[in-house]
Amino acid sequence: MKKLRLILGDQLNHDHSWFDKKSDTTLYIIAEMRQETDYVRHHIQKVVAFFLSMRNFAHYLKNNGHQVQYYKISDSNNTIELTALLSNLIEKEKITRFEYQLPDEYRLDVQLKDFCKTLKIESQSYDTEHFYTSRTELTAFFKGKKSLLMESFYREMRKKHNILTVGDLPLGGKWNFDHQNRNKYKEEVPIPFPLQFETDVSEIVKEIEEQNISTMGTINAKNFEWPTNRKQSLEVLNYFCEHLLEHFGTYQDALYTGHKYLFHSRISFAMNSKMIGPKEVIDTVINYFHANQETIELSQVEGFVRQILGWREYVRGIYWKEMPEYKSKNTLENTGKLPDYFWTGKTKMKCLQHALSQSLDTAYAHHIQRLMVIGNFTLLTQIHPNQVDAWYLGVYIDAIEWVELPNTRGMSQYADGGIMATKPYVSSGSYINKMSNYCSGCHYNVKEKLTDNACPFNSLYWHFLDEKKEHFTNNHRMAMMMSLLKKMEPSELAATKEKAISLMENIENL
Q1: What percentage of the chain has pLDDT greater than the value 90?
Q2: Which of 82, 238, 244, 414 could join 424 in a cystine, given CB atoms 3.0 to 4.6 angstroms apart?
């Protein structure tokens, strides 16, 4: 009996039980696929990171006595589609049983299920052994409940897994320290230089170019910064504990031009490719906290745990609960087109220019840059969520559809009508000014609404609220803004809307 086991590019889990035993009759297949590089236009650093991480994982398996068939993107016998590659290998190697780990993307889940139905040999799927939760755990938790509130799910996860708890009560007497995690960074404490790796990826970049794979963004092929194996991933995690955790929570929402990463961990790619797992990440951080309580406050740690145990598991649960319909939701009926500067970063809006340029240069932006700068702008200018999804899915190194889609279409664009977010996350320029130093030196004036140099966010915000007010009539979290909108003088509202419409018609020139 000869067994073929498939490992996808985001299933690089060293600790999976598959690898507990070696077998001469088990063959692992890992492949760099055109179907994965081409279904959306990806950042060049994202493609390189996945390819190199996959190659490093294959090397690890081979060194540990496992049989591996690896296909590079440049191999002449590498087919465009995964199922064709599998079929060829099954026939060539006389495979009698096919196994795979459950994909985290819906399209791959359907593709592999359909493929197995065509096989004349046995097939079976296995859990990836990565997440705290199963695909359906969130659905079961919220059954019969009126809202899908992340906070209640997060607290249940804390209790279930005994994380920062004393019995069924939260350590420190509070479940959530979010109100202490919203500080603007004013250079009160120095930001440590981020841990980076100087990996030469010139050969992989050359292979990608020779295959005419369309990508976006830039790369320093001689000095690639991201972790692409388990050792490097653990180094990034430990560096976060030792140098960044102390101030992570305090400044996790801050926006600052002088530093790309602030106190963020930059482990999301390592986690989403499964080179490290959420449990070992949380355990490592909490153990470090307990050993260093004289310098690290609970609020810093809880803010980090909430991102992973709360938000990350919650987003995945929403994805599997709502797919495939979720991908086509457009409740606000937005139809606009992304302006060209989303691929160049060349805009006069300093906040948007900084967030876009950083994304294109590094394949990275933290959650507030993604939500309250870029996402805020695309929602206020009423861009079609399909366009926003495709850009977010392509540009960020950690973007895989299960995590990108709910965050973008749901949390950022409110296209799901409030399944995830209790209100649309929109603001005028005042929020960005409050949380950042972006507005200083900008071409536009954040305090103006109607003048030629007025911050575009200001008129766009009120125009959006008025245009979409029917969607927010019964939303208690929008009640104050709806009340302010009603109180606005008709002439002022008309002038504000006229200004916003002009901006949207000339969006390429902002």
Answers
A1: 93
A2: 414
